Structures are given as structure tokens and as C-alpha cells.
Amino acid sequence: MYNNKTVSLKFGVDIVDIKVVPPNDNERILGIYININNKFKFTINKINRMLKYTCSNLKKKRITHDHVIYIINKVLIPRIEYLCQHFIILPYICNNFNRTIRSIYKSSLLLPRSIYNTIIHNQIYPNILNIWDHQFLSQTSLLNAQANNPLTKNLIEYLILYSQSRLWTNDIFFTTKYLDSPSKKLNRIENLLCIMHNYKLEFKFSFKFNTKEGSYPLSAFLIRSNQFFNFIKSLKNKDIFFLDQIITVDDNSIILNQNNLRLTFDVPVINRQNPTISHPKIIAQSSQITKIKNIWIAYWCPRNNDIIYGRVVEKQHFYNHHQTITFEHYVNISTSHPSSHNNMPRSRPNYLAKCSGCILSEQNIYNNNSSNSCYITTLSNYTFIINVSKSNLSFPNYRKPFYKCVCQHSTIKQTALIDFNLCTSPPVNSDSNIEDPIIYRSQLQQFIDLVSINFINKNLILQLVQPNSLHIPLLKLASSLALYTNLEFYTDGSLIRDDNIPTMGHGWIFSSDLNANITYSGASREWASSTKAELLAIITALIVCPPSSTITIHTDSNNCINTYNKLSSPKLTARRFQNINNCTLWNTLKYIISTLQLSVSFIKVKAHSGDILNDTADILAKEGSRSTEYITFNIQHIKNQRCHLTFHDGTVIDRNIRKSIKRIINFQYFERHLKHQNIHRIKDYALNNLIDWEFSQIWFKYNSLSKPTSEQYSKHVSWRIKSSSNNLPTLDILNRNYPDLLNNHETCFLCLTEKESNDHLWNCPRVLSLITPIFLEHYNKFKTLITSESESVYALYSDAITRNIIFKWARTRPPNQIIDIPDLHCLLMNFVPISLSYPFKAAKISKNKTKKLLLKFLFDLHKDIYETIWKARASAWKEFKKTHHITKKSFNNYRRDHNRDTNQNRRTRHRNNNLENSNGYHCPFNDSRRHLENNNLWIYLTSSNFLHNLPWISSLNEDLSQFHSNIYNNIFLLNI
């Protein structure tokens, strides 16, 4: 029994007395509430009360949406982040919190209750933060800082080891990959790793706790999600960890440890290749889609525990992605033909017929046509080729044509299951895949005398530098510089963005002895920036310097010099260091300097000032950018960098983690927004690159009034959001929400013939006739605006104005339907089409001036459209309400008396197609999500953005037409 009333804890140099409270109570320590049983109900209730109290008070005040956004983003959410820094808020709780703050946001902008969440949290619009997303990026940044902080890194290592023991696995990241969503049964780190898979992120730790004596943990084979932890407990009680302990035959060659009955030798590596089958050929990476004929494939689908047959119609192998194939689905004809009735079931021929549609069918251009067929897209490397020929037989209840497989159905099914298990098996111990250093050094000895090279330089180069082909040039340089003690270098970097993929070049010249003619150059990619190119030149120069030498670096990069000087500043804490750009490279630089015990100083050189040596380094850097071998560094060997974050297929996030994850979240919201059926036209326009997203983002937030905040400004923003999302209160929406109140009146108030809807509004003949003179008037204003501001020759940009499709139709005749002129449709929906912003670029008007001129022009144009169209419609709507005695109170009373029936609107769940709604653990060998993991639009945009290192909005202007036939992955956080 503990009798003291307080416990003394040391925080820095201060000792704080903490009050001892009962197990169910919470004690406030440094602003957060701690419970000894790890219960967080008190904190959750406190946040809930805070949000409801704040939002209820905000609704009573006359404030604009800007005030609401500021209070939520800058006051409430940072407070929530601080209170919850020691645990993960579960998704359903985040949903409740988000529901509260969304209500006040909608109220401030007069938006309908049904407005999409992808608008509320979308950076393109005036937005508020999603509590779930903000929690994820803050927790990820916190874990990275804790793992790389000397004070807390040992604690993180212990927690990782503890989690591996809890989940009974030798790879916690692999196991958490198949947990659907965070759970109360998981701790903070386990929940965070579980969430990271849905963002294609992964923490790479320089430490690893391997469990020997086997290859396959039994925890990877558990398939009953609701009993996962019960099974783990049973395995622990039986002291069984690996599958090898069960399937290995006992004989004299098996040596057991009598203390724990474990194998005392490592299980040999299993060859996972399947030589009996052939996979589809991998085509070259391209942005084009390749059509395929006469190729048939099959694969095992764990989604329905059966084999899938298909005829391939196209292949896609986009840059930085795995190859995917789209095929027409065929099914096995279970009933035998009369000609084979006498055959045994395993001897009957295997006939195939077209599938008329199933749960596996994905949304693509083939399934959108009118044919009653089923098309599926999947990863190419999980399929194998089968031999099929056309058959003249006929089968009742099946459609022609029919095909016959060379092999029986049971044989192909068995082959598919074996191939699936081989492809999806977890990797064996990583040590077996590492090249033997003794063998590798003996191979190097044939090209260079390793004895003449200092062993410290040799180890640094071999451990850190990748790929291996760069080792010999650097080792030769280290050998050439071995006799020097005072060394001077001129370094430079080069960034080339001419190609679709930017390339960085780096180079340096050894200036202490010019007669030696010692130079170096190379190239790199990912996170392209001139500063990174300069830093790589400095690192490659230092890694070949002899130990305990004095180094002087001449560089024209003031950024590199300033950052290097900050490294020794006490203000640069371990957490702040992780937020600087290229932090892993700076850690590599620090590690090289400390290992070689170098004394390094920098001298600033003015760029392109006629300095011969600096110009030589510049030439070397540009030559290096043409290299096809891109240097990277193996961070696993850097002691100060205990962990780092990677995206998708291994791209190291070498930037501020919060900002980088924010880019990923932005692209996810962009993709989800385009997936709304109500704005499918905008999706087509976006994928055809008709929308200028940068100017559209500015336009949605543009304030033309002198006051920074006003009710009029909020009304303007509300109109833009409703127009862009087809949420204007037209009669189809009003009849859906108030059917008895409007008596099903749905005739357009302007043309008096068609049913009024958001789509009809811009297709209405009356509307097109009314806006024609508006566009004729603004065409002249547009032409005058550009010609008066441009200093270029008019002939160079005249076609961009006179032939502009935005205004050309007004001088001829209105279109039959608005989709005939998609650029005009974009403009009417308050998006900025590229055809409207391009003339400013053609006239060589600066970007800042373009923003000012274009936004003012858009405001005047939309003001005339609004007053001509919507005010006329609003006047007719007002007369209708007056005639039918409908007031604002009528709508409020109707909403009060007709509560929404949640049971009717509840989504039907399908057991066989329920990935996004299932809970618990997914067996990695019985899960089909791995087939859909690499072809999402947001993954493509994020990879491109990290490669080019540009503002996230710039990546939306890439060619996205290839995603017209793409599929999307369902993840549990779509509903958050």
C-alpha cells in the first residue's frame, strides 16, 4: 500500500510533486490528463464539452466564415492536439468531433447540411481542418521526433519491442498492415502504424528486433478478425511463434533447444519462384495505355476464395507505378456439356463464358458502356497466362461466345492458389538478402587496391553510398587524396527541370593541388532543389577526405552555409532539426564529419562572378546531371537518424513531416471530391486538364471588398461553393428535402418547360440566351484588359483571345447543351478554365499582375451572370412562395416535424464486398486489397509532387487523362 500523497517527478532541472489519485481518476501533468489505467474517457469528454460550448456560442454571434475558420484551425484544433498527444482518438470519436465543427462552418457560409465533407476540408476551398487528419500528421511528426531524440529513443525502442511481443510477430509494421482501423485494444504506436498504411507511409527504423528459428509467424495466418487476440494468447500459452515449428518433420537432423523447444538453426531461404507458369510481360513505363489482344490470364482472388479467368484488353504501366491490367471477366461453366457426361469431374473440359456482372467489377470506361459485361483491373504480377481456344459448343443459360481451356479447372485452380501464396508470402529474414560484404570486397579488390585506402573512408563509402556502381569512383578519389591534410574544394550544384522528371547534378574540384586534376560529378533525383544539389556536392567531397584533416569548402550556396552554422546552435533541438529540409542528408553530413574527425569551414563565393574554379564546379555539376546513376545514401547506418519516414515505394520524406503529410491529405481529398457522382462532369474536365487549379483555388477565396471580413463576402464564397458542387437550391433538391411543402412543383422558373436542377440551370435555353450579351460585352473588356497590360507584340497572343472558346460561341450561336463547350461549363460553375488564364501567359503578363487582373475580371463577369440569371430566378421563386403561402418558418417547421429516417438511408452492407466496413484483422494471405494498392490518383500525384518538390496545387495541372479507366482503393477513413 502506497501511503504518500504525492510522487516527485523530474522535468528537466525541476522536480514536480504529482498528486496520487485513485485508479479511475485523472491527474493533470504539464497540461494533459494522465490515467494510470491508460483510460482517456475524461479527456474525450472534456474535448466534447469544449467543442459544443464554443460552437453553440459562435452560432449566436454575427461572425463571418473567416472568423469561424480561424477559431477552429488556430484555437480549437491545436488545443485538441495538445490534450491528445499521448493517445490516438478513435475514428468514431473523431467523426463526432468533426460533426460539431462542420455544423458551425456550414452555418457561417449558409451551406446545406448535405454539403460534401471533401469541400469542407479541401484546400481548394476556404476550409477547416479535419481533426482526424490533423491528429495523424501531428502524431507521426511526434513519433519521428521521439525516435530521433537522444532522450526518448530508448523508450521508443522498448515500445516497439513490447508491441512485437503483444502482436506475436517479428515485424510489427507487416502485422499492422492488415488491421482495418485503430482499436481500443491497440496502443498509440500500434494504432499509428495501422493508420499509416492508408496513406502509403511507413517508418523505417535503423534498429530491428529479429526473432530467429523460422520464417513465417503464425500470427500472419489468423483469419478470424474478432478472435485475433484470443488466438495470440493461445499461441503464447503454447509457446508457438513460427509456422516452421508445426510443419517441420521431427528427425535426427532437427536440433531443439530443450528450454523452449525452439529450433536452434535458421530455416533455409525458400525459393518463391514458380517455374511452371508465365506472368504477363512487363511493358515499358509510359503515360499511355497499351491495348492487348488474344491474351488470357487467371489468378486466385481471396475476396471470394476462387479463381478468376479473364481476357486481357489493356495494360497500364505508368511512371513510378506497378503494371496493371484490365481484363474482361469470364466464369467457369459449372454444368457439363452432354458430350462429356461420362467423364469424371476432374477430367471434364474447362469451358468459359462471359460474366454478366459481379461484386469484383470495378468502375472504368469499359463498365460504363451499355454492354452487359464485367471488367476488372488488377496488378499484373499476381496473374499468370493460360492457354484458351474458342469453342463451337453451346450451353443453355449462358451467352456466346464460349471458350475452352487447355487445362482442367481443378488444375488451374490449384496452380493459381500456389502462385498466390508464393507471391503474397512475407519476406524472409532480411539478412539473407544482404550481399555478403566479404564476397563484395573481394570483388572490389579486382578493380582497386583497397589496402591503400583508409579503412574509415572505405567503410563510410561502402555503407552509406548507393548504388554500388558509385563505390569504385569514390574509393579511387579517397585513395588519391589520402596523403593530403589541408584540402580545399570548390563545390556547386545544378537543378534542371526541362524534362518531365527534374534532375539534380553536383560536382566539385579539388583546388589545393590543381595539377592532380581531381574532380567529381554525379546526379540525383527526388525532392529536387538547388540546395539539395549543393549539399550533395559537399557530402561527396567530405566522404573522400582523409581522417583528421582540415577542409575548406568554397560554395555559392548561402543557404547551405547558414544551415551548417545552425547545426551547432543550442536553439536547434532534436525535434526542430527533423523539420528542416534535407534533414537526413544533414545528419549524413554530421555523421561523416564526426566519424572522420574533420575540421570544416565554408567560404561564400559569388555565383557567376567570373571565378574560374567556381565556374569549373558549375560545369561539372551540369555534366553530372546527365548521369543515369543517381546517388542516394543508406540512412540505416547513421546513428543519429534512428528512424525516417518513407512514402509508397520507398521515397524518403526528407522534408517537414507535417507539411509533407498535408500534401498527401490534400491529394486524397482532391481524389475523393472528384469521385462524387454529383460532379462527374468536373471529374472529366479535371482529368482532361481543362481547369487551372491554382487560379481556381485563389478565386474561391477571393475577397473583392475593402473589408477583410463581411457578410457580403461570405455570401459570395457561398455562391461559388454551391455552384462548383451542384448544390444550388434548385427545385429538384427542394422537392427532395421538402416534398409535401412544394407539392412536387419542379418546373424551371425561367424556361417553364423542363425540370429544374443544377444541370438544367446552365443548359436552360433561356439562360443561354440571357448570358450571350454578357459574354459579348466581357469579351471586349477581356481583350482590352490584356492588350493594355501586355508589353509583348499583339500578334503573338492575338489567337489566344480572338479564338478563345470561352467567348467564341457568343459571336456565333449558343450551344445545344453546355457540355459541348466544357470550358464554358467550368467557368459557369466558378472554376477557372486554363483557356481563360492562358492568354495572360501568352501576353507575357507577370503572375502577380495576372492574379489581380484576372480575379477582378472574374468577379465582374460572375456578378453580371448572378444578377441576370439567379436574381431573375429568385424573383420567380419568391412569387411562388408568396402564392403558396410558404415562408422561412414553413421550412423550419417541416424540418422539425419530419425527422430523417436513418433506417431507410442506412447503407446496405454486402458480406462478400465489405472491405471498408469490416473490422479487425485481415489475413495477408487471404486479402485482395494488395491488388489495388498502387494505382490511385492521389498516389500518382503525391509521388510526382515529391519528385518535383513543387507546391501541391501545381501537381494538379499534370496530364491526368490516364486515370479515366483507373480504379480506386477503399480505405476505412473515407467516412471520417
Automatic annotation (TrEMBL):
Residue ranges annotated for the RNase H type-1 domain, each copy included: 483-626
InterPro entries tied to this protein: RNaseH-like_sf, RNaseH_domain, RNaseH_sf
Alphabetized GO MF terms: nucleic acid binding; RNA-DNA hybrid ribonuclease activity
Pfam families in the cross-refs: RNase_H
SUPFAM superfamilies: Ribonuclease H-like
Region Disordered: start-end pairs: 895-920
Ranges of biased composition (kind: Basic and acidic residues): 895-904
The name this protein goes by in its record: RNase H type-1 domain-containing protein
Classification of source organism: Eukaryota, Fungi, Fungi incertae sedis, Mucoromycota, Glomeromycotina
